[in-house]
Specification:
The complex is a heterodimer of chains A (272) and B (283). Chain A is of the alpha/beta class and 272 residues long. Chain A contains ten helices and ten strands. Chain B is 76% helix and 1% strand.
């Protein structure tokens, strides 16, 4: 037992239903950056149509873990991944899987909104136009659908050709989400998507998350415990031991927040 | 003691700066002063006559513009290819360093050697004779390091978050190159090209025995045996025969046009360069 361990009472009522296999199964996943271990033997399962929260202190490898799930880590030299990540039971680090196809099916939203210096419309279509050939009418339709699904349509419908850099940070983040949704991914990874936003924009994004999980699965890294409590169904908690990230616990949200051991850990997290 | 030394070094630095500026001013003033009187509509639009003592430099301007346009067309694909190899496809840092080193070596090759290369390869081996295309290719190769380095620096400065975001949307590497890296580094290409062209415009050595003649050429009709007139070579020849006052004025007039052309190219690069700095400070 390490000093950070949490002894959680097993809570059967909130375990994933048997017969509903996980959309993502992560098994003994370790990530190394050259000689340094970033993450050691992390295992958890994400079921479909849930918001799966990942919490933990800075340096516990949360963002790296996310980038391993859609193989974005492949683009950064020096990283090595061991263990298994399966999507719908198929190994994503297997030989025949195309990482570009994988990233189209597992979308990603970053901490800072990354809009391209182009129009709002061009930003929404940025990904999808590379995956499908769209006629003019289909493009307009796709833009409207994506912007409506992030509640941005009414704010920008008269200035779709304007530069997206003129939008507020909160609007930019919703635009990024619209751009991701336009590609129609099954899973969306979110790396602290509200940490750069004010309270109102944060609320708007959280509201969207709850709507999105009707037909998508979301993996949300967050620093904000209240946010985790408000929106997640299941939580994985990472900790950092000697610079290595480890999984402390993976349990359903209610069990997590009602446990006294967890509360002590959270207190430490918030203090530190 | 330290203060005296400090003051001495400040004075020395100021003197160096003043000397540089005064040399520049002297050249520009001399060219404008002596060449200004030659400039007229006829000078810019008429053909050369009486071995440069009369007439204008129309086909010299045309020839120089043809050489520069060809140099631009030759350097652009090569520069994009090398910059993308350096910034995107080469993963080994040592190989990237070597590629850059080669470019710096190319930059250091004396221009007369480019002339010899052109003479051996294009004029003699390929049998083109004196041709505008040879001159354009040689000038393109000469400006290649300037263009490539400017482009590479822009690609290096591209925020990683753009590449991650594009990859996160499932774009393949060629798609990322096409829709993120190329549009975002276009400003670097413009800056590098205009700076390179400004230098290439005044080069005489690479074109004097490969691409240009003093008189008797108009628009090129083909590739083989198809030389053009050019401003630098015109100045070079007239300068050897400048005892005739009429020739002297025409010589300075041609120099003024060349200076103006270079100045115009440098000026045209300014907005792109300013935007580059502006974007860099926002990233």
């Amino acid at each position: 037992m390490t000093k950070n361990s949490i002894a959680l009472e097993p809570n059967r009522s909130c375990l994933p239903e048997t017969g509903s296999p996980g959309i993502l199964e992560i098994n003994a996943l370790s990530i190394y950056a050259r000689d340094k271990t970033i993450l050691r033997e992390v295992s958890f399962t994400v079921t479909e149509r849930q918001i799966f929260g990942i919490i933990g202190p800075s340096g516990a490898g949360k963002s790296t873990l996310l980038r391993a799930i859609n193989r974005l880590l492949d683009l950064q030299p020096g990283f090595r991944v061991e263990g298994s990540v399966k999507m719908h039971g198929r190994e994503i680090y297997g030989g025949d899987l195309d990482p570009d196809d994988l990233r189209a099916r597992i979308g990603m939203l970053f901490q800072q909104p990354v809009v391209f210096p182009a129009s709002i419309e061009a930003n929404v279509l940025f990904g999808v136009r590379h995956h499908r050939s769209l006629r003019q009418a289909e493009k307009a339709e796709a833009v409207e659908k994506a912007l409506r699904s992030v509640a941005l349509w009414d704010e920008v419908k008269d200035r779709l050709r304007d530069s997206s850099l003129r939008l507020s940070v909160g609007q930019q983040q919703r635009l990024c989400l619209a751009r991701t949704l336009a590609v129609d991914p099954e899973i969306i990874l979110m790396d602290e998507p509200t940490s750069a936003l004010d309270a109102r924009s944060t609320e708007a994004i959280e509201h969207l998350l709850l709507e999105l999980k009707e037909d998508r699965t979301i993996v949300l890294v967050t620093h904000n415990l209240d946010q985790a409590r408000r929106v997640t169904d299941w939580i994985a908690c990472l900790c950092s031991e000697g610079g290595e990230g480890r999984l402390l616990e993976s349990a359903c949200c209610d069990a997590f927040f009602s446990s006294t051991a967890c509360r002590r850990f959270f207190d430490r997290l918030e203090d530190g | 003691m330290r203060r005296t030394l400090d003051r001495f070094l400040t004075l020395l630095a100021a003197a160096c700066a003043a000397m540089t500026v005064s040399v520049l001013l002297l050249i520009v003033t001399a060219v404008v002063w002596r060449g200004g009187t030659a400039i007229s509509w006829a000078f810019l639009t008429e053909q050369i006559r009486l071995v440069g003592a009369s007439g204008g430099i129309f086909f010299n301007i045309v020839g120089t513009l043809i050489l520069l346009a060809t140099a631009l067309a030759v350097s652009a694909p090569l520069a994009f290819g090398i910059a993308l190899t350096h910034g995107v496809y080469l993963k080994n840092p040592r190989a990237r360093e070597r590629l850059m080193l080669l470019l710096y070596v190319l930059n250091g090759v004396p221009s007369i050697l480019f002339g010899l290369l052109g003479l051996i390869v294009f004029v003699l081996f390929l049998g083109w004779g004196k041709s505008w295309l040879t001159g354009g290719v040689l000038l393109g190769l000469m400006m290649l390091p300037t263009v490539t380095v400017a482009l590479s620096e822009r690609i290096q400065a591209l925020p990683n978050r753009y590449l991650e975001a594009a990859a996160g949307l499932g774009l393949s590497q060629p798609q990322i190159v096409w829709s993120v890296i190329l549009p975002q580094s276009f400003g670097g290409w413009i800056t590098g090209s205009l700076l390179g062209l400004a230098r290439a415009a005044g080069e005489t050595a690479p074109i004097m025995f490969t691409a240009t003649i003093f008189a008797g050429a108009t628009f090129p009709q083909g590739i083989k045996e198809s030389p053009v007139l050019s401003l630098p070579y015109h100045i070079f020849i007239l300068a050897q025969d400048s005892f005739d006052p009429a020739v002297g004025t025409k010589l300075w007039g041609a120099a003024l046009v060349l200076v103006f052309l270079v100045f115009f190219l440098s000026l045209a690069a300014l907005p792109a360069r300013l935007r580059l700095h502006d974007e860099a400070s926002h990233d």
